[in-house]
Amino acid sequence: MSEKVYINGIGALSSQGQWHHDLFREAKELSRAVTPVNAPSYKGLIAPGMLRRMSSGVKMGIYASQQALDEASISIPEAIITGTGLGCLIDSEKFLHGVLDNQEEFLTPTAFIQSTHNTVAAQIALRLGCNGYNFTYVHRSVSFESALLDALMQLQDDQASTVLVGGVDEISPHTYRLLQLAGQIKQNDRNERVKNSESIGVNYAEGATFFTLSTLRTQTSYAQLVDLTLQHELNKEEVTVLVADFMARQDRDHQLIDALVVGINGDCQYDGYYDEFSRLFDNIPVLYYKHLTGQYDTASAFGLAVAARVLKEQEIPEVLYWNSDRATTGLRNILVYNQFNGKDHSLTLVRVC
Amino acid sequence: MTELKEELKGKIIEVLNLEDVASTDIQDDDALFGEGLGLDSIDALELIVLMDKDYGIKLSDPKNGKAIFESITTMASYISQNRTK
Amino acid sequence: MSKPKVAVTGMGIVSAIGLTVEENLYALLNGRHGVSRLENFSSKWNSDIFVGEIKYTNEQLTGMLALDPGKPYTRTTLLGIYAARQAIRSAGLKDLSGSRTGLISATSVGGMDYTERYFYDYLTDPSLRPYITTHDAGDSSQQIAHDLGINGLVTTISTACSSAANAIMMGARLIASGRLDRVIVGGTDALSKFTINGFNTLMILSDERCRPFDNERKGLNLGEAAAYLILESEESVNAEQKEVLAYLAGYGNANDAFHQTASSADGQGAYLAIGKALKSAGVEASFVDYINVHGTGTVNNDLSEGHALLRTFGEDVPLFSSTKGFTGHTLAAAAAIEAVYSILAIRHDKVFANLNFQHPMQEFSFVPQSTVLQRSIACVLSNSFGFGGNCSTLIFTEQ
Known about the structure:
The structure holds three protein chains of three kinds.
Chain A lengths: L4 E10 L2 E2 L4 H4 L7 E2 L12 H4 L4 H16 L7 E5 L5 H13 L7 H7 L3 H10 L4 E5 L5 H14 L5 E8 L3 H9 L22 E2 L1 E8 L8 E11 L5 H10 L10 E4 L9 H8 L6 E3 L1 H4 L6 H14 L19 E8 L2 E9 L2
Parallel strand pairs in A: 3-7, 4-5, 4-6, 10-11, 10-12
Antiparallel strand pairs in A: 1-2, 1-8, 1-9, 6-8, 9-13, 12-13
Chain B lengths: L1 H14 L25 H15 L9 H4 L3 H11 L3
Helix pairs in contact in B: 1-4
Chain C lengths: L5 E9 L6 H9 L5 E2 L14 E2 L5 H7 L10 H17 L9 E6 L5 H7 L18 H12 L4 E5 L5 H14 L5 E8 L3 H9 L20 E2 L1 E9 H7 L5 E10 L12 H14 L8 E3 L6 H15 L5 E3 L2 H4 L6 H15 L1 E2 L21 E2 L4 E8 L3 E8 L2
Parallel strand pairs in C: 3-7, 4-5, 4-6, 10-11, 10-14
Antiparallel strand pairs in C: 1-8, 1-9, 2-3, 6-8, 9-15, 12-13, 14-15
Helix pairs in contact in C: 3-5, 6-12, 9-10
């Protein structure tokens, strides 16, 4: 547990477009049950021979990861670690339609090949010619945080000095409809925002968020990634224990939290966890972001990007405020909390650098 | 034969998702794999399914595809001799 | 840097050759393979392919596990619970709650078996809808964790056919870094139409029983299985005076970065993974007594893996065999069941047979061990490679 770990580059694609300086000033709050990614043209970045087989998720992943590497001026990382809750859904569905509609005949391999969960990490490695460690985590709302924990351990334990880590999830029409039937996504006519939500389920979306992490601090580093923890099951009353245990293992100067970033997503059934969490801290800003990105399993990676950006700029964009408490001093430590459906909780501590 | 060749070009572009390629870009004797159109082993598997689905020709060993898929000309001639639909 | 030791204190397995560790061992020692025709569901390919299928229906498994038949358990979950409960019992673990115990499970198909059954019917039949959210890979891990009473760190890895090796590796690192005291690691995958047809489109399914490292090999047989190991820290072992089955001494993962599905001709990814594992175990290549190879029986894998072995060991390749002739290729569970077999090789001083081997590969002078062999085994290296160039190697030792 020796090395310090820094966030040196961020790349993202979401319903708000790509990661850029004016992102939060231009951002529009989402109110529809599903919003697709606002994607740029991928031509030029990805070779046509590869592009022709890629679904939206792979393209998003490659775009966001390249942006994260470029920001950190890294050409090939030593490890690539991704998280995805539902994997390459578009190709899974495409192949499944083929199996079911043609009675297992005339099937072609491309969709099957691309349906594998580790496709994004593999395609990034293939494109960069990166022979390093390559992992993919697929566990719902801790898919990204599992990848992040792995990356943090790689860097702290001196296995690597630069790691590319990210999360990506894509929408596909049939699964979207099924998740709506299962009550996870709001009905099409609800038109609610996260702040005025009165129904169960979420506004759904897709996106990719990547980070270049390094043990070397640079002039342009965003923040220091201090620690994180994952907890599978938790009652609302136990949030306080999770936080207390996590904070107890931090150094003293990391224990004063100046702002919170929470994964509130407008699902009335489970947002109470965030109220419990926020109550543990007095009079500090609480920031949210899923009103801009929508909910998807790896949307929480964007929450980390928000925390890193706020620490670097020492300024909180107005659109991110959940409560009315404003920062009174400099922002040093930010605690990020996420869960989904009351399960798969994560706490991530980031610090100014 | 010319008609079959044109048909094949259209199908290849569609099946393999060759967005930036037009039928007129593919010459009858151009190599489809490697240096020419740049197709690879996954494309070969796609073409094997195309042969089965559209022309009723079953190739059980991908290795046999190599000579057949050399160019539009070789493909067209194999299809015209072996098609069952 | 000297790495803290990671002990294996328990294991559980369910595969086509047995429902327990003992049954699997018996089958391995007596050459009883479990590769047969597909029976549990109907597919266009029932009479064309062979599979390593577990001959119990979901209803039977639910009954054997005494689970509520009204709840939505996928086959991947049922197999996973079956193997994980055994592992817990074998390690004598009681209370698994709290932040010092974790579960890292691997799967590639997840709940695809029910998704492919109800994909369209979900739209019209509300009674089926509880299965909708069993589709994702995380569901099986969540159900296993719930069944075992694990509420701390639970996550899932999916890197195709190397998945379980990577779950084992991550678990070991969590213990080595001091974050966990004990962790249940392994993988589970059920057969499905989706994977059978997927591998079929790649034309790598054999219409015979697979023949790994045979010059006339025609492809792989798919299988289904689940297996879990209990990994514990040295402190945890000492505190409770536990019996150690073996140690996970080293591990490595690398990417071939060559092709989305095929392996490079020179086995670069595999070579790097083996090298990393040897380095992490702190042992020379000559220390390895037996290699449980990935050996799927496809033309491409065995050639690529053979080159990686040649590059690592020169002409002195240790005794090696693929056990996929017994079980079929069980995808995300493969590295977990083969970890169990590697540990059994150490505990019983046996090299298991590479079934169906007849003709040496023309490219190599070495051949797999084709009969079961008694030999002192102190160190086993196990390879697992997956789509996306994902190459993983684990090293188990007696001491």
